[in-house]
Write a structure and sequence with these properties.
This protein is α/β, with parallel strands linked by helices. Helix content is 36%, strand content 9%. The protein has a 5-stranded parallel beta sheet with strand order 2-1-4-3-5. The radius of gyration is 17 Å and the shape is globular.
């Protein structure tokens, strides 16, 4: 039997940087992005990045986030634009000014919201759910759990979407994520 001193512990993985661009049209009490900033779990987006740009979570992007994005997310982090879903749909496009330059934009795979404002709706996640989903998809489930702690519906989000998140996390490419979405939710309309 080995002693605890002879078993090497793996080095801890650095946390994925999380960035929030607050547009300001969401109700302050319902704004999970602001709460993440206040708790120090995310940083306010300054419009600049270091050596690698963050992956932007954009609900209008064509490509879904997948395992192929793991390295880009680890290096540059994740950026979410925090705004009201009502305003987002009025604009008809992802808000301009999330960043400039060669930023990768990805939509999240289809998931069910567990937050009180959009409970049970497909793909209408709040900011904290979006971060948790993205972290889960790129193989960082412990970080996803940490981000959700203390948010209404946080535990429910992982419970409701657990099997889906596992399936998406094992997808190595955008095509495999689309296949998983079709298996889970049926063929897309249109």
């Amino acid at each position: 039997m080995r002693s605890s001193g002879s078993t090497p512990n793996p080095p801890p993985r650095a946390r994925v940087p999380l960035y929030v661009r607050v547009v300001g049209d969401d109700h302050p009490k319902a704004c999970t992005g602001r709460r993440l900033l206040h708790r120090g779990l995310a940083r306010r987006w300054s419009g600049r990045w270091g050596s690698s740009p963050p992956v932007v979570l954009d609900p209008f992007a064509r490509e879904p986030l997948s395992g192929a994005d793991r390295i880009a997310v680890r290096r540059g982090g994740l950026l979410v634009v925090d705004c009201s879903w009502n305003r987002l749909s009025e604009r008809g496009a992802f808000p301009a000014g999330a960043g400039s330059g060669p930023m990768t934009r990805r939509r999240l795979p289809i998931l069910v919201a567990a937050n009180p404002q959009h409970y049970g709706r497909l793909a209408e996640l709040n900011t904290v759910e979006a971060f948790a989903a993205a972290l889960s998809v790129v193989g960082r489930p412990l970080e996803a759990q940490r981000v959700l702690q203390g948010f209404s519906g946080g535990d429910g989000f992982l419970a409701i979407n657990g099997d889906r998140l596992v399936r998406y996390a094992t997808a190595r490419s955008a095509d495999e994520v689309r296949d998983a979405e079709q298996a889970l939710f049926g063929p897309p309309d249109g």
